[in-house]
Amino acid sequence: MIVEWNPERPKKKVTDLILRTMQEGGVIAYPTDTHYGIGCDLFNIRSIRKLYAMKRLDPKRSLSIICRDMKDISTYAVLGDFSFDIVKWYLPGPFTFVLKARKIIPKLLMTDRKEVGVRIPAHSVPVAIAVLCGRPVINTSARIAGDEVMTDPRVIEKTFGDNISLVVDGGILVSEPSTVVRLADDTVELLREGKGALGDRISR
What we know:
Blueprint: E1 2-3, H1 12-23, E2 28-31, E3 36-39, H2 45-55, E4 64-66, H3 70-76, H4 81-90, E5 95-100, E6 115-119, H5 124-133, E7 137-141, H6 153-160, E8 166-168, E9 179-184, E10 187-192
Parallel strand pairs: 1-8, 2-8, 4-6, 5-9
Antiparallel strand pairs: 2-3, 3-7, 4-7, 5-6, 9-10
């Protein structure tokens, strides 16, 4: 099912549907500032496993989370003074920051280093979904492993079929991945160059 939803002028019926879908373990697709993402409830392990299966992802591949704000990030990941200043400067925006995960994060989502990728997109829909749920939302690109990211909500719905409960229509997007930066031991490691430009704010 494809739905239209504007968090700034939300229709109660659609808002209630999105919340109920997430609470009942559904998997949904939504637009972000980089591409269409697919997500589910952070603590629903069955839904997370379903997400891995429908995307044909390697079980060892970690997934990122979309947070509501900086307080949310600090609840689920470790933010020291060094990383806090950087993350606060670049978010919201097209960046994924890899930080040391707190124990509250399901192990399934962590890297071998017990780290997790966090995002606050500069797009109202994914952040509003996290606000609606009251906690972060799983985030991964709308594609089958090895294929191109899908840019059309109708293609997403057709490709994933019954595996996806809802697609929030954001129109056809020009897809470009987020810039992924690992922050550890007060150092910056660029893992993937994407839409977000680091500029001269931090040394690499």
